[in-house]
User: Which sequence fits this backbone?
């Protein structure tokens, strides 16, 4: 079966900010060539590491976000390296990069230069704050982009500093936006022959998640505060993460017809457990209006639920609960995610072969499923320079003598 | 200066029939529309988009579906029609729309489209080249497929929630929705790739996109760490293994904070220089990354004594000037009123809405520099019923009136 975008090629110069963009495009069938400096990308030093040993071949972060790419080494700071890159651009459809704005221009490889070589080329630039503007040369990181975006300030608990999301989450969302921009540009290019530059600001992609709270400032001059792990649905924030016997579960106390079946089931279960609870006093759950519940009543409900959840394991609450009609889900640790029966039923994991090490590791297999095409993760990430021979000799036809010269000059 | 093809729109010739609603479904159609596709959003006044009932700002009433800024921000560049999908007379209009469309976008709870006779097999029998995408939390198959879901469940099951927060407390959860915003990027890239595939092969297709499955790619490093090393990662506040200091520090003023991230020894020396080299910075316990990691509590405490005396903005500029990654922890006011970078990038675009007036709409966060978005305000409920029928579907005026009288556009 084909993939959606078979037959196209991308050159991937990104560091940790942009690695997932090429991974997404590769799953769509694009031939993505990861170009690293001789010795390997700096992102190969991002933890965690295989066997807990820091080594360019061991970064699990790197291995996670470079699947299905081929890998070559090329020094873009040398004129010969730049020439080879230009030759590759002529045979490619996309260039992905995440240098500080202006770097590609300094190398003579900015969009205007690339366009001269290949007018259809699409240059996807992924940076912390975007290509232009007063902060464009500012130094970024995930934490910094997250702070700039407006989300960090409202994330976390009221009595502690704002707290970030885990490593990789800000970049992954930015890479999804970048891949989206690449594909929309591609569609236009296939119609018109015209390429263009896609300008991704990681901070802006993150701000995009937060537009709802901006309206509160714009219309009412109200600033949202950090409220902890509570739901913003309904009139007052209500708890949505609950401790249980061996971990935590996610459950929202909804009113009305939406919450009715689960609330009735929960009430029955609490009664079986012999827990005194205010649920049993509600006769008509369909018309149970959360907005009319007083703070005291709400606290009494929460206290009963807290007692109940603490008596049960996360497995009991999610599995038995689901059968009873209670929609509680496990706050999953990595092992729980891997064992999730729903994901397994959808063949979500693919074991990639790390044969040199004699191990196989399961990776997420797909981003979405199509009935006519297969857009799957298939191969592990490349070793440093793994495809140098395949690409430089076999595909570009460079002679062994020239390759020896290039190696000597630290070009490849 | 060379004239960029700014009048061109990337997706000009694409027709989208949009049943998307709430956040993720609405944004999918919005992005396609902002970049030039003709998008017809189908609503029903009997079951209106939940965001049309959201009253989180004071101008929004409980009676007018058209006074919700949030709905407008999520639904720009669309035509809007209302159709009573349960009314048999509406079927003729729906079928014309299916024939008109290149793409159908929907994100109802799985099974809903089938009940409406609008599942892929049914629409394909009307338009064999159709590309249809269903976005949902769990996907269309599997034991949880029919379960109703919200973003927070995706955060829980993907492993994201468990990694947010402090080591001495419970999980923080995703405070601001994540999955609702990442799913639309994948929806759009899947649909547009499928359009390209159809151009080459003539074949349409059905796409099943699950927010949970997309989200779980993000936690793959932690899942690999568990498989390979039996290491179960846990919450760690703002600390990461390969940088120190790396955190959020109190600044002068009420609830003002600055984020600072120091990765290299060179950055550490510059950092010490910016805070005027107090004696503690020379102590051996802070001399290397591994020493700083070991004494991070004390390091953060000592740093905070300096940061709390300065305004967050000044710290950001001082640090950045010295080559250190730092940012004000911005709030909505900082971003809307005082952020020169946001202004330069035109992420917010002030457009006039007939009910709300002029306010900040949002451009797509992926900026195509050659074919810029042309974002238009969102439709009022049923605003384009007549226009869509007569202009796109060639329904005569008389027929439109008959359909209207039959209650098709409820």
Assistant:
């Amino acid at each position: 079966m084909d993939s959606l975008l078979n037959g196209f090629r991308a050159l991937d110069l990104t560091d940790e900010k942009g690695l997932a963009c090429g991974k997404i495009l590769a799953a769509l069938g694009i031939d993505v060539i990861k170009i690293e400096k001789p010795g390997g990308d700096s992102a190969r030093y991002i933890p965690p590491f295989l066997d807990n040993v820091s080594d360019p071949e061991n970064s699990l972060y790197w291995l996670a976000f470079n699947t299905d790419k081929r890998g070559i080494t090329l020094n873009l700071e040398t004129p010969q390296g730049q020439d080879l890159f230009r030759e590759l651009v002529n045979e490619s459809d996309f260039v992905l990069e995440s240098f500080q704005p202006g770097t590609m221009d300094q190398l003579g490889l900015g969009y205007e230069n690339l366009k001269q070589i290949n007018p259809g080329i699409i240059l996807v630039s992924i940076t912390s704050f975007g290509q232009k503007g007063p902060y464009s040369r500012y130094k970024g990181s995930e934490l910094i982009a997250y702070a700039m975006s407006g989300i960090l300030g409202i994330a976390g608990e009221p009595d502690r500093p704002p707290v970030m999301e885990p490593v990789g989450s800000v970049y992954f969302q930015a890479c999804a936006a970048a891949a989206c921009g690449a594909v929309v540009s591609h569609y236009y290019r296939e119609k018109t022959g015209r390429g263009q530059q896609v300008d991704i600001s990681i901070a802006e992609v993150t701000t995009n998640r937060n537009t709802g709270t901006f309206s509160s400032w714009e219309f009412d001059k109200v600033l949202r505060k950090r409220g902890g792990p509570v739901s913003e649905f309904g009139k007052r924030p209500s708890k949505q993460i609950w401790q249980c016997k061996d971990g935590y579960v996610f459950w929202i106390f909804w009113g009305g017809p939406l919450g009715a079946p689960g609330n009735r089931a929960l009430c029955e279960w609490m009664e079986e457990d012999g827990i005194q609870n205010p649920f049993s006093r509600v006769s008509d759950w369909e018309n149970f209006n959360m907005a009319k519940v007083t703070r005291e009543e709400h606290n009494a409900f929460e206290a009963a639920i807290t007692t109940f959840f603490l008596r049960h394991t996360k497995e009991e609450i999610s599995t038995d609960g689901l059968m009873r009609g209670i929609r509680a889900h496990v706050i999953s640790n990595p092992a729980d995610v891997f064992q999730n029966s729903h994901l397994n039923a959808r063949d979500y994991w693919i074991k990639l072969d790390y044969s040199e090490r004699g191990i196989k590791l399961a990776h997420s297999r797909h981003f979405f499923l199509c009935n006519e095409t297969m857009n799957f993760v298939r191969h592990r990430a490349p070793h440093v320079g793994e495809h140098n021979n395949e690409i430089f000799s076999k595909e570009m036809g460079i002679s062994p003598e020239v390759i020896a010269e290039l190696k000597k000059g630290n070009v490849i | 200066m060379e004239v960029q093809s700014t009048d061109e729109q990337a997706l000009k010739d694409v027709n989208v029939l949009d049943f998307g609603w709430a956040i993720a479904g609405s944004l999918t159609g919005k992005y396609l529309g902002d970049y030039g596709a003709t998008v017809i959003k189908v609503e029903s006044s009997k079951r209106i988009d939940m965001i049309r009932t959201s009253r989180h700002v004071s101008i929004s009433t409980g009676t007018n579906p058209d006074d919700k800024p949030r709905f407008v921000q999520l639904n720009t560049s669309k035509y809007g029609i209302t159709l009573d999908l349960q009314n048999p007379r509406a079927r003729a209009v729906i079928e014309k729309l299916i024939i008109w469309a290149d793409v159908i976008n929907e994100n109802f709870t799985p099974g809903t489209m089938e009940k409406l006779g609008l599942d892929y097999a049914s629409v394909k029998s009307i338009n064999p080249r159709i590309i249809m995408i269903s976005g949902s939390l769990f996907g269309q198959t599997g034991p949880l497929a029919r379960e109703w879901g919200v973003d927070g469940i995706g955060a829980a099951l993907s492993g994201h929630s468990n990694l947010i927060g402090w080591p001495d407390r419970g999980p923080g959860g995703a405070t601001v929705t994540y999955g609702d915003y990442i799913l639309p990027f994948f929806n759009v890239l899947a649909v547009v790739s499928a359009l390209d595939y159809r151009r080459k092969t003539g074949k349409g297709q059905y796409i099943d996109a699950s927010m949970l499955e997309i989200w779980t790619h993000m936690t793959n490093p932690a899942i690999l760490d568990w498989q390979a090393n039996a290491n179960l990662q846990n919450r760690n506040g703002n600390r990461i293994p390969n940088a120190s200091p790396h955190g959020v520090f109190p600044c002068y003023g009420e609830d003002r904070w600055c984020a600072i991230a120091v990765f290299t020894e060179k950055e550490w020396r510059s950092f010490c220089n910016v805070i005027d080299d107090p004696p503690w910075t020379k102590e051996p316990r802070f001399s290397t990354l591994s020493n700083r990691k070991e004494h991070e509590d004390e390091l953060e405490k000592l740093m905070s004594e300096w940061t709390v005396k300065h305004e967050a903005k000044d710290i950001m500029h001082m640090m950045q000037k010295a080559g250190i990654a730092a940012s004000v922890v911005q709030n909505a006011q900082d971003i809307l009123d005082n952020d020169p970078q946001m202004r330069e990038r035109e992420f917010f675009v002030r457009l006039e809405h007939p009910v709300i007036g002029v306010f900040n709409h949002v451009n797509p966060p992926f900026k195509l520099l050659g074919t810029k978005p042309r974002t238009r305000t969102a439709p009022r409920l049923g605003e384009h019923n007549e226009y869509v029928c007569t202009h796109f579907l060639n329904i005569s005026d008389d027929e439109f009136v008959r359909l209207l009288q039959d209650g098709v556009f409820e």
Summary: Residues 72 and 388 of chain A are 5 Å apart (CA to CA). Chain A has two domains: 9-208+344-408, 232-339. The first strand of chain A starts at residue 9 and ends at 12. Residues 232-339 of chain A form a domain with the formyl-coa transferase, domain 3 fold (CATH 3.30.1540).
